[in-house]
Amino acid sequence: MNSRIRIPRWLLVTLLVSAIIPGSLLAQANARDPTAAITAFQLMYRWNDFNGLPGNVDQNTFVAQPIIPWKWGNQAHISRITASYVLSAPDWNAPSDNCSPDLPPPNYIPCEDQTGFADTAAVDFTLFDTSFGRIGFGPVLVIPTGKDSLGSGKWQIGPAGVYIGKSPKAIYGLLAQSFFSFAGDKDRTKVRSLLFNPIFSYDLGNQWAIGASDMGFSYDLNTNKWTNVPLGIRIEKMFDWGKKGTRVFVDLEYNFMDNGISTGSTIRLFVVPLL
Fold it and tell me: 49 or 104, which is more confident?
């Protein structure tokens, strides 16, 4: 499907400001490590269009993700909550049962043009430092806060794991999560899916970094098919806004899996104050 990408003016202004304003003088390399003991409040605006839908249709979503490190005794944990608000969505005249429940928040694809809160996800990792990097294990929980077609209608739970390795310039690793529905609307499709997020970021110096986007490879265990196979790039800049600095980064991404209804091109803008 051919779809013209319409980038909001405020996004272009933000990118221009990012290129002009000097970065923070503080050393913030650990801020790019998703398992670092740094409290942050991640704000994201996401625009995406679709494969498999006729016409020039797109979706706009605002996402808030508090990231909270904490300890149980001497054991380090890090928790992340994902709350999404759909600003606009495509209307493809399908019953809500035929949306895309295999994609977790904030990637769920609504099937009618509604606005409102989508499902909420929370994950907590118990972290361990090893000779080859940092690993973490814990549960993920999805709460069906999305109304009608804006959510899966299902409570979901599953195990999750993360691995982070480091070199002097790079951070690399993998985040894996699983989602299995156990309660909720009995008329909605059961969720049985896996999600894999490769992690890579390279320090360019002067508080700039480049790396992989927040791309998620998703696999639907109900159909035994990959539903999202993306490729994307991230450009990041650290600023000295606030007490501990603020990360600003942009993701540009495309999904090569176009069987049925799926996301196509995606643009994400993140503003992440470190607290």
Answer: 49
